[in-house]
Amino acid sequence: MTGTSLPLLELNPSFHGAVVRPGDADYDTARAVYNGSIDRHPSVVLRPSGVADVADAVNYARDTGLPLTVRCGGHAVAGTSANEAGVLIDLSSLKGTDVNPSRGTAIAQGGVLWGEYDRDTALRGVATPGGRVTTTGVGGFTLGGGYGWLSPKYGLTCDNLVAADVVTADGRLVHVSETEHADLLWALRGAGANFGVVVNYELRVHPLPPLLLAGMLVVPNADGAGEVARAYRDELERAPEEVVAAMATILAPPEEFVPPEVVGSPVLGMVLAYIGAPEEALEALAPFRRIAEGGMDLIQPMPYTALQAMLDGFAPRGWLNYHRGLHVGGLSDVSIDRFLEVGTEIHSPMTQGIVFRHGGAVARVPEDATAASHRDAAYMAHPIACWASPTETDYEMGWVRRFSEAFAADLTGGVYLNFEPGTSQADVHAGFGPDKYARLAALKAAWDPTNLFRSNHNIEPAA
Ligand SMILES: Cc1cc2nc3c(=O)[nH]c(=O)nc-3n(C[C@H](O)[C@H](O)[C@H](O)COP(=O)(O)OP(=O)(O)OC[C@H]3O[C@@H](n4cnc5c(N)ncnc54)[C@H](O)[C@@H]3O)c2cc1C
Predict the structure, then answer these.
(1) Max alpha carbon distance in the chain (Å)?
(2) Which atom of ligand 1 is nearest the CA belonging to 35?
């Protein structure tokens, strides 16, 4: 245990974990989150060593009345895992993963990150749809829905959540599954940060071949890019759901495969992977490779863990960030043209304008089966502004607005809250829609009537 002076009288003396307070050497590291725009100062950071410590921490926050925040990977761009003048429960010391392919699931503890989870599942030749950057937490990601490269084939991460252990607002440990507290499992699948501290996630796993055909095709974002992007869209609409994909506008990074004269220029990248047998993959990806002929073809056999880490270079911790996640019904020519035009206005080397392919297994789950919403959208527009200095903030936020407006003709009006920077009630309603919000508010009243867990895209308890 670190730290000295005591505003901690009510913390159970049996609490075994770390206690970090203002003035401690590791306080600034302990309070920092991924998004460098968020700068908050908790009164205390509690890092539990086990489930009983989590219960102690919840009881302590509730009894003192201090604002409570829970953190797994700290990636929430909205800052919902940062805390001002309250109690921050940092789960980063709970790292166990137990993979059991014969049971068809893996159990991850509350502090596991996707890079850690994927390493362990890869050893057994299986995987769960998960974060496309390895430092993202399994926790906030799964509880908010979770779109990974495997999602068009195997669904959202929360669709693969078969059970969980949750410390609730009254400090109880509750096991949640299809047969125990099924209403809470429904809520955890998309609105889960609202109902307690999840200490264990049991996730379905799927077999994967040792190598997948995957990578990126890159062409200049200049004359001719519109033709390429439209051909990519047309091909994608014919492609089976094993073809997972995203197109992105970026500035060419200073990597060894990029000719020096191209570094820093606007490019259109098409990330593609085939989730299935390598012998089928060559044929399935061939039409896309033809479309981008003459550009850079970085598609090659790679392990799933390499695909999962492919975008890591664009996610430096501590840079300033502002993202959106907008569901898109289809990709009209006009949206494609505007998307490319706004792509030429990127200033920061880390800013990306991404359009993910969704649908497939995500859309096959009925809309009312989980709290996660807007399943029928075929694509998601995801502007990621990521910049180094506050002097660039106005430009970068304006760029996100222009990128979002580029899809005006095709937006469904729904948003994906895990990517959304706003936490107002209007934002939260846009994430769930009125009917689901009402159902969630009734569950919130049952499980967390005082709204102890409100450092999130918050569902207010029904009256
Ligand atoms: C670089 C980057 C890449 C990303 N890639 C993707 C992607 O590919 N697909 C996608 O869908 N999303 C992606 N996201 C968004 C991501 O899903 C969210 O940021 C998510 O919240 C991250 O989870 P976390 O555990 O790191 O979050 P945290 O910031 O730790 O937590 C987020 C929210 O969940 C709550 N929470 C965390 N753990 C628990 C728990 N155990 N019990 C209860 N509440 C908890 C927190 O209190 C907070 O409200 C990405 C984000 C970033 C920054």
Answers:
(1) 68
(2) 53
